[in-house]
Amino acid sequence: MSAKNCARCGKVFNYVAGAPLCSLCKEEDEKDYKRVKEYLYDHHGATITEVSIALDISVKKLKRFLREGRIEIIEGMNLLLECESCGAPIKSGQYCDACAKELADEFKAVTKQPNNHQAAQTDGFKKIAKMRYLNKNNM
Ligand SMILES: [Zn+2]
Ligand SMILES: [Zn+2]
């Protein structure tokens, strides 16, 4: 145990583990979390903004609930999180599928440097040649 300042209200408290919040703020967190869960139970597919307005809980806090892996909120939900790269709605994590793939591809390109570009070009030439052939036959 050590003395710490509560991350929310700044009060000094005996820190044990987990979030650096005093017992009062932690209790409030739990209450908010329960309200969010109840709200989502009745409003499947509500957005983070809707929940925030309806319950008067900050978007920041709601996002923290999600990122902390309180998965019950996410299930049956959509549009709650935003991709950190393009802002598209996602269900969990940090990036949408497209951006996650792009990031993975970029990573691959850096590590392996495959010659995909050239392969795609050759493919394109083949298609054009085929089209020309077909056009000739049609004429
Ligand atoms: Zn506090
Ligand atoms: Zn994205």
Give a structural overview.
- The chain is mainly α and 139 residues long.
- The protein folds into 2 domains: 21-94, no CATH class; 96-139.
- 58% of the residues lie in helices and 9% in strands.
- It is built from 6 helices and 4 strands.
- The protein has helices spanning 23-42, 48-55, 59-67, 71-74, 97-112, 116-138, and strands at 2-5, 12-15, 81-82, 89-90.
- The strands form 2 sheets. It has a two-stranded antiparallel sheet.
- The model is unreliable at 74-79 (pLDDT under 50).
- It binds zinc ion (2 copies).
- One zinc ion (ZN) is lined by residues 6, 8-9, 11, 21-22, 24-25.
Spell out the blueprint of helices and strands.
Layout lengths: L1 E4 L6 E4 L7 H20 L5 H8 L3 H9 L3 H4 L6 E2 L6 E2 L6 H16 L3 H23 L1
Antiparallel strand pairs: 1-2, 3-4
Bound molecules: zinc ion (2 copies).
Short description:
The protein has 139 residues and is mostly helical. Helix content is 58%, strand content 9%.
Q: How widely separated are the two ends?
A: 87 Å
Residue runs with pLDDT of under 50 for 5 or more positions:
74-79
- Specify the helix fraction band: 55-70%
Tally of helical segments: 6
Classification by helices and strands? mainly alpha
Mean pLDDT: 77
**Topology, number of strands:** 4
Which descriptors would you attach to this protein?
about 140 residues; 2 domains; two-stranded antiparallel sheet; 6 helices; elongated
